[in-house]
Design a protein that fits this description.
The chain is mostly beta strands. The protein is built from four helices and 15 strands. The strands form two sheets. Strands 1, 2, 3, 4, 7, 8, 9, 10, 11, 12, 13, 14 and 15 form a 13-stranded antiparallel β-sheet that branches. The radius of gyration is 21 Å and the shape is globular. The model has no long low-confidence stretch (mean pLDDT 96).
């Protein structure tokens, strides 16, 4: 949270909107994000995506879904900051009722993703060619400088052109050195997870025939770990967001709710300061993330009520370009 002196300075100055600059302490753990992050030409294709989609194949087992995998390049730009955004409130303090306004610093972002290669199983003819734009997302990262709920000091708001609006609450921590990348199970929840089960044939296919010879949708986070080998990371800032924290959630248009409801999202970002220096003598910066969105469709077969939860996982390793 902001210190008392930082908060007083923000209140006195009032609301301001300007170009975001790296190192701004009012952004808290977001302070290294302003600028452009991307897959640089020397290291393209560090982005990987997997998603199960409702689909009726012309032949093969009647599983009524396909597994789509993509390799992609990304640009993620943080450009404007809106400081001292006031949220008005009151609270009891001892025997008095006092003003308890919250002040937020909002850092905007815009994400664009272009695929390098794509494949699916069963084959649909819909995977698309190289160079196809597959994602665009504008949104905000928030640093709530005071009056927080527990340790939830951060938030992420995103809007996706498919018809989704996301609010995920979050927290931050600093890690000395390289972060521990958690394992991620890419298999759907609510079915028998034995890969020899015919229902999981698409997952078995890509598990035994790695996409681009590298990506296994059963264990999607492994390539994040591989990207950290022989890289000297001095310090990492971890941001963790989840729509199941407090008042978070996802709102979708009716078609999505009916066909493949995006019900939950969780994401971790690792802002890494390297031992290697840039041209100005400052530590080079990298940004890694893993994000999982659960899409709910088709009845569960494990005896539990509700729908199968299909993990839509995206990972990438970006470098600070500007």
């Amino acid at each position: 949270m902001l210190s008392k002196s930082q908060l007083q300075k923000m209140q006195k100055r009032g609301r301001s909107i300007s170009l975001a600059k790296a190192g701004d302490n009012e952004l808290g753990a977001l302070k290294l994000l302003p600028g452009l992050w991307k897959n640089l030409p020397g290291l393209p294709g560090r982005g990987w995506n997997m998603i199960a989609l409702p689909f009726v194949a012309k032949s093969g087992p009647p599983i009524n879904y396909r597994l789509l995998v993509n390799q992609y390049n990304e640009e993620l730009r943080f450009s404007m900051v809106d400081k001292a955004v006031p949220n008005r409130g009151i609270k009891k303090y001892r025997s008095k009722t006092i003003n308890a306004d919250q002040f937020v610093a909002a850092l905007d972002y815009e994400q664009t993703i272009i695929q390098i290669a794509a494949d699916d199983f069963p084959k649909s003819g819909l995977a698309g060619p190289a160079g196809l734009p597959i994602h665009h997302e504008p949104g905000l990262f928030l640093h709530m400088g005071n009056e927080t709920t527990g340790k939830l000091e951060y938030a992420r708001l995103g809007t996706i052109p498919h018809g989704n609006s996301v609010l995920a609450l979050g927290k931050a921590r600093e890690i000395k050195g390289t972060p521990r990348i958690p394992a991620e199970n890419g298999l759907p929840i609510g079915v028998d997870q034995d890969l020899n089960t015919p229902y999981l044939a698409p997952y078995k296919h890509f598990h035994e025939n790695l996409f681009q010879g590298l990506f296994d949708p059963v264990h999607p986070n492994r390539l994040l770990k591989e990207a950290n080998k022989e890289v000297e990371i001095v310090r990492t800032t971890e941001l963790r967001f989840d729509t199941t924290f407090a008042t978070g959630g996802i709102v979708n248009i009716p078609f999505i709710v009916k066909q493949a409801d995006a019900s939950e999202m969780s994401a971790r970002f690792w802002i890494q300061e390297l031992k290697e220096k840039d041209a100005t003598g400052k530590p080079k910066l990298r940004l890694q993330y893993t994000q999982t969105v659960f899409l709910d469709f088709f009845p569960r077969s494990d005896g539990q009520p509700g729908l199968i939860k299909w993990p839509h996982v995206s990972i990438n390793t970006l470098e600070k370009a500007t």
